[in-house]
Automatic annotation (TrEMBL):
It holds the Pfam family MipZ. This is CobQ/CobB/MinD/ParA nucleotide binding domain-containing protein. It comes from Metallosphaera yellowstonensis MK1.
Amino acid sequence: MRIYVGGSKGGTGKSTVAVYLFKRLKEMGHRVGFRDLSQNLIGEALMKAMKLTPDPDPEFEIYDLRSGTQLDHGDVEILVTEFPYLSLDLEETNSEEERLREEMRSQIGETKSRRVLVVNKVSPVPEDMQEQVRKVRELAWSFDHVVIVPFNGNLFYNNLEGEPTLDVLAEILAGKRGDKFVYPLAEPMHRRP
């Protein structure tokens, strides 16, 4: 399975999300590959710092894309954005052109990629988070899965030990879950086996 992780701008956490998914899928016992195609190679640097090694002949191949790269060629396409850029990013993805492309794919029988929206660094303040979650639900109609990640100092400083919403995303990618919306604190905090 090819998993493309991208976003319209740098700094939204797409490399962190890509490496987190790599690490979590490996912990689940899968063979995982990783290709850093970004301009700054942060994903590759994170992989080296954490001593993570891609597997030969992977079941999952994660591509950390250059900012602004069109997401239209993976088995799973993950758009990583933050709240200030959410409307702009979703205007691009939900455009008339995208709707026409989906219609053409269905007419010629081309398999559609699963589309995942990861809204990163959502406010941890409960009232603000509720408002931001409401806005995401209104805007994110064209995605198969929506994952809302609260601002987390650990992730911000590349401590990839545990983020429950991204753990659920890894389980979705592995075919163990099918959640449409993954909210912060929807799952009890737990340690992985």
